[in-house]
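Lecture 7 notes: from sequence to structure.
We start with the chain below.
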Amino acid sequence: MNGKDRVVSGMRPTGPLHLGHYFGVLRNWIALQEDYDCFFFVADWHALTTEYADPRRIKGFIPELVVDWVAAGLDPERCVIFRQSQVKEHMELHLLLSMVTPVSWLERCPTYKEVAAELAAKELNTYGFLGYPVLMAADILIYRPKFVPVGQDQLPHLELTREIARRVNYLWGDFFPEPGALLTEAPKLPGLDGRKMSKSYGNSIALGEDLASLKKKVSGMLTCAKRARLKDPGDPKECNLFPYHELLTPLGKREEIIEGCLSASWGCGDCKKLLTEALTAFLEPIQARRNALLAHPGRLGEILDAGDAKAREAARANLESLRELINFVF
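Predicted structure tokens for the same chain:
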């Protein structure tokens, strides 16, 4: 421990990341590593809850995920980047926590029915899917962090983790600090067609997007419905492009865009050209770091091996202390 408050968070490996991942999660992680003792993990066991029928693919997604993390700005010298499945203490703590967690707590979890409905085509009536919030609690509590970075929609999951910690402390003795929420800004970035940005919808822009592909995607983006003709005034608040400009375009230029749209002195093509330029300027340094890392694949293995070792050391010490508390040291 380096004297800083500890933060823990993770992400499922599902393939290359897109802009929604960056602005929704990664940008906050990158800022946190400046002031906190950060542990960021690849949640490969969590991926099994929905991908259990074909788990062979999961391993291949991990390098893509970590390359994007590091290219975006996570620094292995300032945070611990590791694979959940390579720290077996997560699973042992998951087992211990499952012994004290009432089933009713899991069934009331708000995302349980939501995710089941979204993935209705998959058979999700499994113990693993029902109990994944317990594994999530184990992922957090094994490092005894002070904070967990979450968006507003994730607060129920964190509160369940806090409830499980309180129950352990009541039954077995005071051991786990109750991690607080580090509420993070997560701007809504729509997909190219106005729906939620998702690889499965084919409406995303990847951090590793080819720049020629980028131009084509931006040119086909949905714009304000009011602008059926060039002379029709529009409303930036109703345009799918403007959330991107709010994140990527300097304020002065954004004011020009607003005025040009409202007065119809700008066309949507002008707006898309500016957005292409802003996206290119944003993605080029990320892709340069990405290409440098891909050119030395051994470096990625070094980062993960070192992170796994640091995470195991911290997790093992905490789990040994818990075993002593419940008299399970033999």
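Points to note: The CA atoms of residues 39 and 80 lie 5 Å apart. The longest strand covers residues 6-11.
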